[in-house]
Design brief:
Blueprint: E1 9-11, H1 21-29, E2 34-37, H2 41-50, H3 57-62, H4 68-78, H5 102-120, E3 127-132, H6 139-148, E4 153-157, H7 164-172, E5 177-181, E6 188-192, E7 209-214, H8 217-224, E8 233-237, H9 270-275, E9 280-283, H10 289-297, E10 302-305, H11 307-310, H12 319-330, E11 336-339, E12 349-352, H13 361-366, E13 378-381, E14 387-390, H14 396-401, H15 415-422, E15 428-429, E16 432-433, H16 444-451, H17 460-468, H18 471-479
Parallel strand pairs: 1-10, 2-3, 3-4, 4-7, 7-8, 8-9, 9-10
Antiparallel strand pairs: 5-6, 11-12, 13-14, 15-16
Helix pairs in contact: 1-5, 2-5, 5-6, 6-7
Length: 488
């Protein structure tokens, strides 16, 4: 599906495995764009196999992987038929690094292939994958794995993804390609050779459409002005959306509660967006039929919706965590805070203030600082010229030893481990289970009031039925003869 005939609703690509293949498949079958999260899928695949691969879905997808030897190595290394014994930690996965690591490349390509393959299984509707531009090292192998599985859309934000269109062109032909890795002290070239993973690539792949997730018409104009960086679509994300938000334009100002203040410079000029003649969708607080109507009136193709899908039954959010969040939102006991410090990226990050998560100061204080996943580390050049990596959420003494500033460590959370735990895949560190980190949009209360007023379960179909209204039945009936039921 191309952008000019795009969907009315894009299901957001949230967190780590929250936008799961089950959720994306359900949304796609109902005629809208289902999107899987592409973040840390190497870890998601490895941990899913170690947990026993209930239902055999991961192994079924791996059996379709273009290079059987790669699939066999991954299964042999990580699959545990009986799951992990109680008190047993997950086996480690290589962390993202500039230096080439074959296991990391294979797991990343295979992880993205598996997620997209399962999302596309059994229907012919479009599936997208969402990636963060700030997580640079896995980007090219992640794109390649998704394209091997026939992904239809790539969505990317949290940065300036100007080089992605050219990378998609190259990967579609199994050609080596590269990106520039931002390194403090001098950038490096981040190269990827498909034949390092797939020994004998087949015929050319279908080149997916690319949608850049941007926070302003200014960035959209920058990307659209050059054919090399011009995407097939834009997602305009307002700062009330969950997860990472674009920082306010201009000097950072905080309100009395310590949250960033957004002003007139952060408002989108829709007239300028329409003038770009690139299809666009609006995201952030859009889970309402009136917002869809407003988006269409502004010239948008439709809306992107995250929080409403994150709390539905098909999402990959840990079931007990999801239930507690809905129940507390229903009683207006849960507050979502835009935290300017939580994320190691330096971007504001929405943190649901739920007891028992890392938003709870007692939980955060009890968790020993560590950085063992490494997706949000910052590369820097040492005095001897070598590339090293640091994260302001790692142990303070380690960060300082790498030249980091003490003030940068204050208030930081381990987003990598927190989001992995929120998806029900927490690492065990000695006797301590990594606590979850829950991110939701500012409209979470409104979403639950409409879809789950008592905190009860609801489904992805309920979200679409509410937003699309009368058109839902027409659109979904063209996509499938029967509404999909919740998948096991």
């Amino acid at each position: 599906m191309r952008a000019e005939t795009g969907p009315r609703v894009i299901q957001g690509g949230m967190g780590v495995a929250v936008s799961s293949w089950r959720l994306a498949s359900t949304v796609a079958r109902l005629g809208q764009l289902g999107v899987v999260s592409g973040t840390a899928l190497a870890v998601v695949l490895a941990r899913g196999l170690q947990d026993g691969d209930e239902g055999g879905h991961l192994r079924r997808a791996l059996s379709a992987f273009p290079d059987p030897a790669v699939a066999e190595r991954i299964i042999e290394r990580y699959f545990r038929p009986e799951g992990r014994p109680p008190g047993k930690a997950y086996r480690a996965v290589p962390v993202p690094r500039l230096r080439k690591n074959r296991l990391f490349l294979e797991l990343t390509v295979a992880g993205c292939f598996v997620e997209v393959h399962l999302a596309k299984e059994g229907h012919d509707r479009a599936i997208g994958i969402n990636l963060l531009e700030k997580i640079q090292v896995p980007t090219l192998p992640a794109l390649y794995g998704a394209m091997l599985a026939g992904v239809d859309w790539v969505l990317m934000g949290a940065g300036i993804p100007s080089r992605i269109p050219a990378a998609l062109n190259a990967l579609a032909e199994h050609r080596s390609t590269s990106l520039v890795l931002a390194v403090e002290g001098g950038d490096e070239i981040l190269a990827f050779e498909p034949r390092d993973v797939i020994a004998e690539p087949g015929p050319p792949l279908s080149r997916p459409s690319f949608a850049a997730i941007v926070g302003s018409h200014v960035l959209a104009s920058h990307l659209a002005r050059d054919d090399a960086s011009r995407p097939e679509g834009f997602v305009l994300e307002h700062p009330i959306a969950g997860g990472h938000n674009a920082p306010p334009r201009g000097p950072l100002r905080l309100d009395d509660s310590g949250e960033p203040i957004y002003g007139p410079r952060d408002e989108v000029d829709f007239e300028r967006m329409r003038a770009l003649e690139v299809p666009f969708w609006i995201a952030g607080g859009q889970a309402h039929p009136a917002m869809l109507e407003r988006a269409l009136a502004e010239g948008a193709q439709g809306v992107q919706v995250g929080t409403a899908f994150a709390l539905c039954e098909e999402s990959g959010l840990d079931a007990p965590l999801k239930r507690r969040a809905r129940e507390q939102l229903a009683t207006e006991a849960l507050y979502v805070r835009t935290d300017p410090l939580a994320s190691p990226t330096g971007y504001p990050f929405k943190v649901a203030q739920l007891e028992g998560t890392t938003a709870d100061p007692k939980v955060q204080a009890a968790r020993p600082r560590r950085c063992d996943l490494g997706y949000l580390t910052t590369p820097f050049r040492r005095d001897d010229g070598r590339i090293d990596y640091r994260c302001p959420a790692e142990p303070v003494e380690d960060y300082l030893a790498k030249g980091g500033a003490l003030e940068d460590t204050v208030g930081r959370m381990c987003v990598c481990n927190g989001l992995m735990s929120a998806a029900g895949l927490p690492q065990l560190q000695g006797e301590i289970v990594e606590p979850p980190l829950l991110t939701l949009g500012d409209d979470a209360h409104a979403v639950v009031a409409r879809l789950s007023p008592e905190g009860e379960p609801y489904h992805a179909a309920d979200v679409l039925r509410y937003i699309l209204g009368e058109s839902f039945a027409t659109v979904s009936s063209r996509s499938t003869n029967e509404e999909p039921q919740p998948q096991p």
